[in-house]
Amino acid sequence: MSAEEQIDNKNITNDDILGDEIPRALQDTLCALCYRLLELTPPHGRFKLQFPGSHPVSLNCDNLLLLRQRYYYSTWKADGTRYMMLILRDGCYLIDRNFWFRRVQMRFPLKNIHDGFHDMTLIDGEMIIDKIPEVGLKRRYLVYDLMALNGSPKVKLPFSERWKLIEEEIVRPRNHERKKYEVEGRSNHVYRYDVELFGVRRKDFWLLSTVTKLLREFIPRLSHEADGLIFQGWDDPYVNRTHEGLLKWKYPEMNSVDFLFEMSSGNRQLLFLNEKGKKKLMHGARINFGDVEDINAISGKIVECSWNSDEDCWVYMRIRTDKKNPNDINTYRKVLRSIKDNITEELLLGEITEIVHLPMYADRIAHLHHRRH
Question: mRNA capping enzyme C-terminal domain: which residues (predicted)?
Answer without folding.
Answer: 255-349
